[in-house]
Design brief:
Strand content: 5-15%
Strand order of the largest sheet: 1-2-3-6-5
Radius of gyration: 19 Å
Number of helices: 10
Helix content: 40-55%
Number of strands: 10
Order of helices and strands: EEEHEEEHHHHHEEEEHHHH
Structural class: alpha+beta
Distance between the termini: 53 Å
Length: 317
């Protein structure tokens, strides 16, 4: 059994929603451990469906795998990876990310297509709806929650106005409506759960990237997964413009991801979902971290995005 003395802490952080601890193990692997935070909506993780574990394995390759927890319970999940940092951290700390991030998002697009289309058995498996969208839908409707939830909802409601707020609600409702194209989803596909392999040398491709998966496994429209990545990249891009440091390569990352995913997705739905993804992040910060002046910038950002139905988040075709 590995003890704390045998491991080296790389990072530990958390919010009211979730805490993360990253450690290097004696064999060199890097363990990501997550636990529900004190304000997690249910206080516990659901069991990872057996069918999702099988499907994730089918959709994986030596280049990128949808890693399901090697240990999981209602209050804990652990994944062994070969990277100490997420793709989100790379985008936050690097002026122009390495080719590795471009390659990782291209692989993710390819492999996500397989996850969405290559269904396994267990037709009666019960999946939740995408967790981020359900959090947003409930908050938009009722405006309640921990920390700054109510105060931010009041600002959003009064400054967006009723028409824009209704539009945002309609985006969320449409993404959660069952359709004939529903499939198994990652559920909360974020750049913070994409773990590129740690490169030992320029010529060493490493043992493959990992996507921390399983505890948010869901069923719904494939556009819900796509919109999470597209929206997060658009949020990075818009925030960079606000600070006077444009990062045009972020649109190239979006194009790379979508091109590798391939055809079959609805452009308007992904665009609207990208707006919902940014709104969810703003909600999550208010609810699970608390008030911060940066939240003021999200209201005009969301207003502009709603006015164009999120089309600026997608590269021109």
């Amino acid at each position: 059994m590995t003890t704390l003395d045998d491991t080296r802490l790389i990072a530990a952080y958390g919010t009211g929603l979730q805490s993360t601890r990253i450690t290097r193990q004696p064999d060199g692997t890097i363990r990501w451990q997550r636990s529900p935070g004190p304000n997690h909506p249910t206080g516990a993780y659901p069991p990872v469906p057996v069918a999702f574990t099988e499907q994730a394995r089918t959709a994986s390759s030596p280049l990128l795998r949808f890693a399901t927890p090697h240990e999981a319970s209602a209050h804990h999940a652990s994944w062994d990876t070969h990277g100490p940092h997420s793709a989100a951290r790379a985008l936050l700390t690097e002026d122009d990310p390495t080719q590795q991030i471009h390659d990782t998002l291209g692989r993710l697009g390819n492999h996500l297509t397989t996850l969405h289309t290559r269904q396994t058995g267990h037709p009666h498996t019960t999946y939740q709806q995408p967790a981020g969208l359900t959090r947003l839908q409930s908050w938009l409707e009722h405006g309640r929650g921990p920390r700054a939830s109510a105060g931010f909802h009041h600002r959003l409601r009064t400054q967006l106005g009723p028409d824009r707020l209704d539009k945002l609600r309609s985006y969320t409702h449409a993404l959660l409506q069952p359709t004939s194209h529903d499939t198994t989803l990652h559920g909360w596909l974020t750049l913070g759960s994409i773990v590129p392999t740690e490169l030992k040398a320029a010529a060493d491709p490493g043992p493959g990237d990992a996507v921390l998966s399983g505890i948010e496994a869901a069923r719904g429209r494939p556009e819900a997964d796509l919109a999470n990545i597209v929206g997060e990249l658009e949020e990075f891009r818009l925030n960079a413009e606000l600070t006077g440091t444009p990062r045009p390569f972020l649109h190239r990352l979006t194009a790379t991801f979508l091109q590798h995913y391939g055809p079959g997705w609805d452009r308007a739905t992904v665009a609207a979902g990208a707006v919902a993804r940014i709104a969810t992040h703003a909600h999550d910060f208010a609810a699970y971290v608390g008030w911060h002046p940066s939240l003021h910038t999200y209201i005009p950002m969301l207003a502009d995005l709603i006015d164009c139905d999120g089309t600026t988040a997608l590269p021109d075709t």
